[in-house]
UniProtKB/TrEMBL annotation, chain A:
Species whose genome carries this gene: Colwellia marinimaniae
Residue stretches making up the Transglutaminase-like domain: 463-546
Protease as UniProt keyword: no
InterPro entries assigned: Bact_TGase-like, Papain-like_cys_pep_sf, TgpA_N, Transglutaminase-like
Lineage top rank: taxon: Bacteria
UniProt-recorded name of the protein: Transglutaminase
Taxonomic lineage of the native organism: Bacteria, Pseudomonadati, Pseudomonadota, Gammaproteobacteria, Alteromonadales
PANTHER family: PROTEIN-GLUTAMINE GAMMA-GLUTAMYLTRANSFERASE (PTHR42736:SF1)
TM stretches of this protein: 33-49, 55-72, 106-127, 133-149, 161-177, 183-202, 214-233, 626-648
Keyword Transmembrane appears in the UniProt entry: yes
SMART domains found in the cross-reference section: TGc (SM00460)
From TrEMBL, chain B:
Domain of life: Bacteria
Keyword Transmembrane helix: yes
Taxonomic path: Bacteria, Pseudomonadati, Pseudomonadota, Gammaproteobacteria, Alteromonadales
Gene source species: Colwellia marinimaniae
TM annotation in the entry: 7-23, 29-50
Keywords: Membrane, Transmembrane, Transmembrane helix
UniProt protein name: DUF58 domain-containing protein
Amino acid sequence: MMLFNKKKKLVSQNTSGNVNGKTMSNFYLSRQNSWLLCLCQCLNIAVVALELSTWMLIIIALSLAWQALLLQQNRATANTSRGKHPGTVQSNLASKRHSHGPSKQLATNISPVVLGIFALLGCVAIALTAKQVGILLSMVHLLCFSYALKGFELRTRRDFYQLLLLGLFILASALIFRQDLVFSLIILSLLIINLTVLLQFFSSENAFATNLKVVVVLLGQSALLAVVLFLVFPRLSPFWQVPFAKSAKTGLSDTVKPGDIANLTRSTKLAFRADFGGQKIPNYAQLYWRAMVLENYDGRQWRRQNKVTQNKADGSGTKSLIFDASNTEVLPLTYQVFVEASFQKYLFALAPAVVTGNASGITAQTDYTIQSSTIISQAKSYRLTSYLTAPLALELSPQSRQINLSYPQGSNPRLEQLALQLQHNYVDVQARAQAVLTLINQQNYSYTLQPPLLVNNSLDQFFFDSQAGFCVHYASAFTFLMRASGIPARLVTGYLGGEYNGVTNEVNSAGKIVNKGHLSIYQYDAHAWSEIWVAGKGWLRIDPTGAVDPQRVNIGWSNQLLQEQAELNNTFFNLYRMKNIAWLNTLRLQFDALDYQWTRWVIGFTSQQQYDLLKHWFGKMVPWKLALIIAVTLVLSMLMLMLLLHWLNRPKVKKQAFAQWQIIYHKAIDRLAKQGMEKPLAMTVNDFAKKIRQQYPELALVFTQLSASYNRLCYQTLSISEQEKQTVTMQQQYHHFIQVLKNSDKKHL
Amino acid sequence: MIYPTRFGLTYVGFVVLVFLLGTNYQNNIILLFSYLLASLFISVMLHSFYNFSQLRFYSRAKQQGYADATLYYVIKITAKKTHYDINAHFSDARLNSPIVNLGQCKQGTQELILAYKPSKRGQYKLGRVTVFSEYSLGLFKSKAMLDFGHYAIIYPKAKSFIAGQYQLSGQVDEPNRESYQTTNSVGSDDFSELKSFVRGESKARTAWKQLAKGQGHYSKHYQASQGQLTWLKLSDMPSNDLEIQLAYLSFLIGELTTAKQSFGLALCPDMTNTAMNIPPNSGFHHQQACLTALALY
């Protein structure tokens, strides 16, 4: 045993003197476990690696590699010393002597002073870069740095514990940055590995797989209580302000140049999901998810209108501009949106929409977009009611009209000229817009992800020379033309469409079509379109993309576009291929559905939902009732856990397997018992046979033979083949016995 | 008895920390993580309990040995299933006993050996034995204090002694020996009995007288040589220090037993005091009795 568990004995400075203190000083970690711990450190740091700066990663990698090197050296010395005394390895003393060598070497290799200086330098470096990366990230840096360095001074058991807890804390903090199902499962599996390393310390003789199983069982048993806690334990509001991650923004940005969205569409990341809860999902061409309205154009790019100027019209004025749901006859469509972390503030809606349900932290804007008051750093959900066909803003304030008509004079002279011409030819506003669309449709325009680069983002160049572009090109040029021809127009960005995931055409009891599924909207669904203001109709959505590539607007990406996309991007290529293989696609959709449920019920489980759930189960909530529920459910689940464990740990009565011959004999005895001749338990086999001989002479011969065989099998040592032979004979004897018994029965009758 | 270890308490603090992290970030997954860790605490407690229950311990109460030699108390553990990480040590902190670990206690009977190394002769009550386990994750310590009534009888450490010196003192002792011999009237090579002749026996031993009388073929048997009958006397030991005297005696007892010589031990000059003096005998049990007497003196 000692041979395989080469233990390193490290002398502790712990001089507390009591008995417990002495356990601390005898700290052993088996070789296998040391390696596991090292691996564990690597994995734990890997989950936050994306958040760490490169220099920190290099430092951590170096220190971990150094630790691995030390471990390797330990083994080498241990091997040589083992080779020198092959005869004494088994004795306890000898192996202790062996392990002294490496431990000394470990101590000389890393002196605490060097380590201290190194740690100090690292902290200074972290402090210096703190401003750059933000407080949260520098905390994570510090955590990982200390975790990597702690591995050098594994002297006592306490160090080992500290290292493990640090590792677990890294896992927990990794969840700040990502919470999706895959990542959560990764964290869970890492938790299992971490705990197994700890368990391995207490049962080092078990194989790693066995310990892994034990930990999984432990966590499985804990899961019950954890779920109960999750459901009933009150959600508290934050105790203090915490620094949030300054992660890179994803998704749309609030300035748009032609060509911007084409880059975004290379991403296959999820943007958000929408659940229509059994209602009919609107047609693809109606799913214009509005994110931002860009009203400022400087000749190069589109920008959002500065908030300050908007706020001037705040108060009652703003309210009147926000959509009023009470005086519309359009059918409402209620749905729930689950946004992924974007580290931006904008949310998505099918305009015009009002926020229903819990509206805290969500505000509707005058331009019919919806914004979160805080940066969305984790998945968030909200409920909206949309009135799809209702008009937007029948009135236009003079200020707004002025903004939406302005354009830098002379920025795109050829377009301006065209606009004047259009203004002259078409008096009706809508006819003028339609004329542009017809122009785009009929001329040789192409819709492509790889438009030629424009000099200075010139719209002229696009519209008259290259005539190839993506949605922003068309929307920008169209909006510019409208503005130049005197129609208030603006650019809107957002997402178009979405992938439906679920069972369609399920008919419910009332005969209505029910959708059990959700829409997933990915980054590649990003889109830009434009809006013009028409008196009496309000803001009208006009999508010039529809004029050049109708399929994009009506169904989704055309095959040509998809292929283009796949050439540009590897992940997209994979997705494209996956979509073409039916079972893989089903799998992908199922996983998406699973991830959706996770987002909906676990990530999005708010205190409101918790309250509703408890109310649904237990009726109206009052504080004392809540406390009672928490107490009772906790006690109950703990009791259940205890019962379960008690049942699992019950002393196992081994069922003794009876041999064939035992079964035969007992069958014979049972037959006799039915005839009224029971064998007393205390009576031996021979005595019983004698009794039968006396009372039933006709059975005497057969039963005595049977008994003799039984005795032979029972008490003589026979080889297996002999046993088999005897058993076969006994079987024959048994059949004989049954026949005789039946015959005698007949005679008696 | 089961209670959280220091690590267990730290762990609880850690779980609270994770909970705070989750609450402050309003992050459900971190909250779930902390709940899972908290529940793990409970299930580990139950697991430690079941790991430690249904164990049976047996141990012999008495051990004896020389001073400065290590005594081993064997604790037999009978288990119905596999138990892990069973540790034991003497509860008495003054004994400074090292913790003995049994990593895996398989079904059946296994042994844990507790060592005790006393430095002085005498009888020691070792008190209770603490058996504990920190399986499965070191969060809890299941502990039991078992009273086996362990005690140790420690003989004085043998101090070598030149045999000639003792021979001398033995001769001085002659009158006593004589009186002892007379009372017992058993000398060396004395005739003891006649036994019927067995083929192969020396003819020299044949009891011719009986054969001649026609009473049968017998051979004479003599009592085996007893060697020198000795009384080991405390007062004879050449030292003023009682402990050294006892150490000499301890050595001599060992030597004489090895030589299979019969001897008696007199700790009290008054030979009639039967409680303090052990009549001559030989063999292992006699040695033990004598050494015990030395230990307890």
